[in-house]
Structure formats: structure tokens, C-alpha cells
Specification:
Blueprint: E1 6-12, H1 17-30, E2 35-38, H2 42-54, E3 64-65, E4 76-79, E5 90-94, E6 107-113, H3 117-131, E7 136-142, E8 148-150
């Protein structure tokens, strides 16, 4: 993998993770990248697991998690740790999840709810930590209309 990664911070202010995550994962898959999504709790992993099968009437995002077979063949893998069985190029760390080593991926995406003080503070801490590295950091925030705007 690359020694330097693109690190994108996505500050959710107009929608929930459930609304924003599928579209961002779809864009990664359109680039022919495999994806790992890292969670901090089993409950959130299970909720997003169900969502990815049902979020759209005409589509779903094929994926697997630790107890599933054929993890390496799936385009998306859901995990609670730093496991990457599908050799993903992109890692989404959501809702205050601990950072992974950015050098293991082409892109690290950190998504956090701006209305959750703990997630906001964690993201600020992660920004400071990663700012000390040579990785390329980009900060995106939702506009009042829900579109992503590059802020830094």
C-alpha cells in the first residue's frame, strides 16, 4: 500500500450516518476500490449491516462481516477492528472509531456527527494527530442543503 494516504473528514450536520454512508461507499466502489467500514460497537455494525441490504428500493451494497464466509471476495467488509480481509483500498472509520494506520489504505475516511460532542471532539483530536503526518487531509462539511462542501 501507499505510505501516504488521502484522509477525508466528513462532518455530518444535515443528515445521519445512515443517510450519507451508502452514497459514499457507492462512489468508492465506482472507482473499483474495495471498502472496509470500521465501527466501535456491535449494535451499530449490525444496524448498518441491515441498512446496506435495504437502503434503496433498486439497489444494495454487497458486503460481509467477521462471521460470514467469503470475506475476501466481498467489495465491502464491516468490522470492529483493523481487519482487512478483502484488501480494501478505502477504510471508513465512523462515529468516533479509533483510527487505523492510514498507510494501509489509499484513502481513510473519518465520518462523525457534528451534533455529538464526543464524536466532534474525537474528530478534532484525530485531525490534530494526523496533521502531524505527511498524509493529505481534507475536511468536508454538509451545507444547509445537505451537499458536501470542502472546508479545508
Amino acid at each position: 500500500m501507499n505510505s501516504l494516504a488521502e484522509v477525508f473528514f466528513y462532518h455530518l450536520s444535515q443528515s445521519r450516518l445512515e443517510d450519507a454512508l451508502p452514497g459514499l461507499v457507492e462512489r468508492s466502489l465506482q472507482r473499483h476500490w474495495r471498502v472496509v467500514i470500521r465501527f466501535s460497537t456491535c449494535e451499530r455494525l449490525d444496524a448498518i449491516d441491515q441498512l446496506l441490504w435495504t437502503y434503496s428500493d433498486d439497489s444494495f451494497l454487497a458486503h460481509s462481516k467477521a462471521e460470514d464466509q467469503y470475506q475476501a471476495e466481498q467489495p465491502v467488509f464491516l468490522t470492529l477492528n483493523d481487519h482487512n480481509p478483502n484488501e480494501a483500498q478505502v477504510c471508513f472509520c465512523v462515529e468516533g472509531t479509533e483510527l487505523v494506520d492510514p498507510s494501509k489504505y489509499q484513502r481513510l475516511v473519518i465520518m462523525f456527527d457534528g451534533d455529538d460532542v464526543d464524536q466532534l471532539n474525537k474528530a478534532r483530536s484525530q485531525w490534530k494527530q494526523l496533521k502531524e503526518t505527511e498524509n493529505q487531509l481534507t475536511y468536508w462539511q454538509q451545507s444547509a442543503g445537505g451537499r458536501w462542501e470542502k472546508k479545508a
